[in-house]
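Reviewer 2 asked us to include a model.

Predict the structure of this chain.
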Amino acid sequence: MTVNSAVAKRISKLLKEKNMTQYRLEQNSGIQHGSMQCIMNNRNKTVTLSTLILLARGFGIPLTEFLNDELFTSDDLEIEQ
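Predicted model (structure tokens):
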């Protein structure tokens, strides 16, 4: 699994946990709809740290909580360069 795929899965998981729509996350985080669609549809090769911070803020959680998921600790996580 790529980092972008892991981020997209984490977003989906948190949206369900927090009963939040993708639209609300976009509004809360300031991430434009097109950019969010690229992340969610795996059209991005990489996700920047700045984007991860915006996502965490959009969910109202610390970045460490966003990254605290088994998706990001897997040895099979592919790092694209």
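The mean pLDDT is 93. The helical segments are 3-17, 22-29, 33-40, 49-59, 63-67. We have added this to the supplementary material.
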